[in-house]
Amino acid sequence: MTALPSRDLRKPVYDTITSRPRRIPSKATVSQQQRLFASSTKLVIYLLLSILGITSLTNLVLYSMNQQTKLYHLRSEVKDAKQRIATKNADFQYSFDPRVTKSLMEANSYRVAKDKLPIIPYNAEEVRR
Fold first, then answer.
1. CA–CA distance from 14 to each of 6, 11, 22, 28, 121 (Å)?
2. Which of 26, 45, 67, 120 has its CA 20 to 30 A from that of 61?
3. Rounded to whole angstroms, how far apart are CA atoms 11 and 57?
């Protein structure tokens, strides 16, 4: 029996015609540990940025809701104030209406027109008692 020549099984066997030159690793290649460290660092930074973004968004949403409730209360107060202003304006216009000037003067003073003096009936016998 003929013994086969021993060869290293870890190295591939190439044909001499189609063989490619071996690639020589350059000094600039990054090791696997360095790539792992860089990618994990990027992952941690991106996670921190996402957490920061989410917290700022929740703060903005809460602030917006707070401002909306304040705006609602202000609008209701403005509505009430408009109603009060309308009634005060109507009273003010009534006070300066030339058609009711006489009656307003009578209502706001102790003087009364002569034709409108109150007539108080009384019994003379009751007055003597």
1. 16, 9, 11, 28, 142
2. 45
3. 57
Element (H, E) at 67: helix 32-95
Handedness of CA 68, 69, 70, 73 (dihedral sign): positive
Instruction: Convert the pLDDT of each residue in 74-104 to its tens digit.
Output: 999 999 999 999 999 988 888 788 888 778 8
pTM above 0.70, yes or no: no
> What ranges do the domains of the chain cover?
35-112
- Record the tokens describing residue 121, joined without a space: 């009936």
CA–CA distance, 71 with 119 (Å, rounded to integer): 59
Query: From residue 53, how far is each of 30, 48, 50, 61 by CA, in Å?
Result: 32, 9, 5, 12
Residue 55 confidence class, pLDDT cut points 50, 70, 90? very high
What Cα–Cα distance (Å) separates residue 28 from each residue in 37, 41, 66, 114, 122?
A: 17, 20, 56, 118, 126
